Amino acid sequence: MTPFFKIDGRIEEASRRAMEKCRDQFGKIDEITEYNQLKVQSAFIEYGVSESHFSPSTGYGYGDRGRETLDKVWARVFGAEDALVRYNFTCGTHTLATALFGVLRPGDKMLCVTGTPYDTIHGVIGISGSGMGSLKDFGIVYDEVPLKNGRPDLEAIESAVDETVTMVYIQRSRGYELRPSLLVEEIGRIAETAKKKNPNVIVMVDNCYGEFVQKKEPTEVGADLIAGSLIKNPGGGIAPTGGYIAGKKELVEKCSYRLTTPGLGKEVGATLGHNRELYMGLYFAPHTVGEAMKSAVFIAALFSDFGYKVTPSYNDERGDTVQSLGLEDPESLVAFCQGIQSGSPIDSFLLPEPWDMPGYDSKVVMAAGSFTLGSSIELSADAPLRPPYYAWIQGGLNFHGAKICAQLAAQKMLERGLLK
Hints:
The chain has ten helices and twelve strands. It is α/β, with parallel strands linked by helices. The strands form two sheets. Strands 1-7-6-5-4-2-3 form a seven-stranded mixed sheet, with helices on both faces. A five-stranded antiparallel sheet has the order 8-9-12-11-10, covered by helices on one side. α8 (275-305) packs across α10 (399-415). The protein is globular, with a radius of gyration of 21 Å.
């Protein structure tokens, strides 16, 4: 199949079978990609993006046209009233925390309706740790509604939402869980259910890994606020750092006061020449997400052919770019991640080993040979070393590069006598 890598013939044959299975899904992904690309392109044209928008600002950053127009383009693309897009956000968790602290006040109640959220947000809420300045430390009440058979329990949500609930919080992606990611339509039903009980409730969505996976975004179906990271889907593999918040204008404004300072908000913040990368990242994002989706579909088809459990299946409808793969034992888990690393364009010579990663309650092994450190839109595979030993795979700047990484992961497992 390739003169550049040594792949066992049985793996090559399984790859051919997987490609045949993926044909219809790839067609559907291309349709979504084209729709979202046209949506982004029309927004750029509508707001007259030009070379002048890429000029750097310094100091206070007053009157930065590029920064102001980027917010408008972003809001247009995401069907929101306003947006706050900044390289100053250090990561997705920081962006989410800014949004939560921006709109919640002492005595407010936050209700997570998708079970317990992702590990790194626990310290922000106050689920774990104390005295760190969490929401709990500031007198904000937290509660959650468990999932029912892996899906949102609308009846339980309706029962839990009342006039005491200030925010209904939704995590779109699965995190380190085996539940399905949420489709935009499901988020719309949650928002409708919550607002029927309390019209004033704020519906906020952690949109990480979900941008451009479908034709609509949560802000188009009832969400008041969404947030995510620019080194995931919407940065297109080009944005070197940053995050975004989008939604209702008054809520985004409150978030901007948390990011900078009350009274100044979005009016300050020098861009230092980063605007070009953020614009380019958004422009390339629909295509890049399409490549990541094809990568996930192929991995699901290939490893299910080998006899492993995968979620979602290669032909399931998807709400995010994450693929879960059940490898059954720690040795196979580590071998898989090491195989992914061996095909990465950056740091292919490194050998990932499990370590105590900050923010997680068990050792984590992570393959991530990326141009941008920690970028989750570039192919990566990470897994906590705990039963049932699933790997969570996301990203892929281009499908063909991700495809060979998947084959090398199977090859590494085969060489160690671990592949089924």
